[in-house]
Amino acid sequence: MLKAVILVGGPLKGTRFRPLSLDIPKPLFPVAGLPMIQHHIEACAKVPNLKEIIILGYYPPNDLSNFISEMAQKHDVVIRYFQEFRSLGTAGGMYHFRDQIMFGNPSGFFLLHGDVCADFPLQDILSFHEEKGNSLITIMATETSKEQALNYGCIAKHPMLDYMTHYVEKPSTFVSNLISCGVYFCSVELFETLKTTFKRKQENAYNGLELNGKDCEAMQLEEDVLTPLAGTGRGYVYVTSKWWSQLKTAGAAIYANRHYLGLYRTSQPMRLAPNSKTVTGDVFIHPTADVDPTAYIGPNVSIGPDVTIGAGVRLKDTIVLDGATIGSHTLVINTIVGRHVKIGSWARVEGTPCDPNPNKPFAKMDNLPLFNKDGRLNPSITILGCSVKVPSEVILLNSIVLPYKELTRSFKYEIIL
Ligand code: GDD
User: Fold this and answer.
1) Ligand 1 atom at minimal distance to the Cα of residue 153
2) What residues have CB less than 8 Å from 105, skipping those under 6 apart?
3) Of 58, 94, 291, 370, whose CB neighbour count within 10 A is largest?
4) pLDDT digits (tens), the chain, 417 positions
């Protein structure tokens, strides 16, 4: 029997996702019509013999409870949420809830970061892990550019035997362009390693050694476990060439939306709106949305529940969240329209895509800071926080509008507070 653990962090994480994470916990932000971690759950539920999915975070349980019960009803898998009493790190929560994870004697479990999106090759990772026999953990890895690798966990591996020879978390100089995707398969014996690590940290804290003010109850899988495991022959690296990306910023959500919609085309075409004279490419329209038949939609658009789209509206590379209204003949491109936003007629709302550089092989998305060196906003997608009102006939370009703001004029490259 197998299990899966999904790490979702908590309210203090996901700050780069603001203002969208102000009214929706980041793991539940809809991408391609589904809460971000529903894509993880669906991938896990497809693995034969996977019986339980444990979601670990430090969100108050009420934030996720409706979602968890909805998921439990939809899938033939037990789904539970456990709240860490505070941030315990990428391995601390797993160790804290080891009895719950071990309950029922699973032979191993997947460990997935909630803030990545991918065409998860879980069955392949499992077969790879089993083939290696003595592996404590198999890390899914992908290639990236030399410069971008510094933002990730960098791995070196034996070219033939695939065991990890070196691991450095976010190195300051180049180590390898093979990076950890935050997707793992763990044998239950890994808990022995976690126990030893936890004990060492406690002893060091007790003796006043080593910690330099760091939290001794938190454990990071990357620095505390993977780095020491490198070279021991007990950690293996599975390299994927399938699509994978981090989902740290709102800009990444538009990129992820496109890819998840693209995956529906082969795996779940029923989820996509049929193409017609007015719907092109991959488009998700929630059945409760009211879309005028003259609106021209797509490609890469997701429209949430109870959304109203007026006549002659043009939408492209955009996510429209529940309850939003877009007035007639308005154009919206590269934008996230928050919940219950109202946009008038004949308006233009536009952002700049933040896709990976297509000319650099293996490039991932750049998670650019909000501001450039001159203190100006970096061009990015436009984001309208919840319940924002945009009047008719205005232009909104590369701007971020915080929740509940009522605009009265056009804006370019501004954060509107
Ligand atoms: N439950 C729980 N508790 N989850 C946590 C905690 C915690 O204390 N801290 C982080 N997480 C979750 C986050 O919500 C996120 O889903 C994931 O763990 C990764 O956490 P980050 O701390 O944001 O790390 P990162 O994304 O910068 O880097 C990690 O992921 C990269 C791949 O996306 C590292 O593992 C890198 O090596 C890796 O390349």
Assistant:
1) 37
2) 1
3) 94
4) 999 999 999 987 656 677 776 788 999 999 999 999 999 999 999 999 999 999 999 999 999 999 999 999 999 999 999 999 999 999 999 999 999 999 999 999 999 999 999 999 999 999 999 999 889 999 999 999 998 999 999 999 999 999 999 999 999 999 999 999 999 999 999 999 999 999 998 888 777 766 555 677 799 999 999 999 999 999 999 999 999 999 988 889 999 999 999 999 999 999 999 999 999 999 999 999 999 999 999 999 999 999 999 999 999 999 999 999 999 999 999 999 999 999 999 999 999 987 777 777 677 777 777 777 777 777 789 999 999 999 999 999 999 999 999 999 999 999 898
The CB of 245 under 6 Å from ligand 1? The reply is no
Give the C-alpha separation, 335 to 400, whole Å. Answer: 10
What does the alpha-carbon distance between residue 134 and residue 142 come to, in Å, rounded to a whole number? 23
CA of residue 9 to ligand 1 center, whole Å: 7
**Positive or negative CA dihedral for 33, 120, 84, 65?**
positive
Concatenate the DSSP letters of all residues of 222-277 into one string. Answer: IIIIIHHHTTTT-EEEEE--S-EEE--SHHHHHHHHHHHHHHHHHH-GGGSPPP-S
CA 412 – ligand 1 centroid, Å: 33
CB-based contact 3:109 (threshold 8 Å): yes
Buried b (16+ CB within 10 A) or exposed e, 127-141: ebbeebeebbbbbbb
Q: Is the CB of 183 under 6 A from ligand 1?
A: no
Q: Looking at the DSSP assignment, which residues form a beta bridge with residue 139?
A: 184, 237
- CA angle, corner 144, sides to 141 and 149, nearest 5? 90
- Closest residue by CA, ligand 1 atom 14: 9
Going by C-alpha positions, the residue among 184, 163, 197, 168 that lies closest to residue 95 is: 197
